[in-house]
User: What shape does this take?
Amino acid sequence: MTDTRSLHGRILTPLGWRRGQVQFDSHVRQLQVDDHSGGDDPQLPVILPGFIDLHVHGAAGVDLMQGGDVARTIARTHARFGTTTLLATTMTAGLDEIEYALQGVAATMAAPDADAACIAGVHLEGPFISPQRLGAQPNRTIEATMALVRQLHALAPIRVMTLAPEIGEHTALIPALSALGIRVQLGHSAGTYEEGVAALQAGASGFTHLFNGMTGVDHYRPGIAAAALAHAQYAEIIPDLQHIHPGVIRLAARAIPRLYAVTDATAATGMPDGEYALGEQRVHKCGGCVRLATGSLAGSALTMDQALRNLVQVGLDLADASQRVSTFPADYLGLGDRGRIAPDARADLVVLDAELRLQQVVVGGRLIDLD
Assistant: This one.
């Protein structure tokens, strides 16, 4: 786009809060700010970097594993809640089903929707996980090989892959996976603390929905979550206030410098209570919670704007919470052009009122219809 637009309010800049305006087309072109103001006027709207969600299974009644054009619907829906970049996330399934889903993602990425969040690639959450820590994943796990990963990576760019490090040769594969540009995350794992540390030393760089689907922090037999708290720079967390107690969110935020929020959103996101698909499973949304028929949590109906509000609710200040829904996930993927409001960054912006309710969303300079 060539027209320059502007937004005025309290802007979270790399130097902190400033009062002023952002001028942008497809990218931020200029920040006109008052260097003597902390931007603390509560009457002004709040302008933050657009949200970045690295773990999205679905929305609006559709699940990524349905393939075809559903990734477009998912990206359009999450944009209405402030997400400007996301990773389309698979479930454990048969290889033909995973391949079909990846082909749909690739087609959507090749012809992106101007009114949707940018799909930056795939988070392959299965099938290379432990059958002992399935969570809501079906029991169709297999051991990873480089040939298989390359086969899948050729269909759509895998940016993040969840791996149980204790399975077979998984830890030995991590350097080669990293060399392909894949961020290896530890998750859905029955591994020990030592196995987690060994995987980090091999090049693993994160943890999938920390505390959920992994061994914990028993003080005699610490597991994967303990390895994260002791050593991680990055990890996902689902701040829906259902997957994890608020006090544990605060613990993780103190221990892991670049802990960042994800939604783990399912087809139930943005939808009324009822039954929905999650891969080959059926899940039930009731009162904002998504569960299997057994009662176990099965992803979420969380949106990133609510994730931001929840982080503030549990005690993080707004600037810190903003980094955990924008800057840190951008940095984790090496997306230096987003997750911050600065000249030449992509014009991915959200405007919030004093109660942190969304007023406007801008993706690549384009204003999104929130209705």
In short: The domain at 49-339 is CATH 3.20.20.140 (TIM Barrel). The chain has one domain: 49-339.
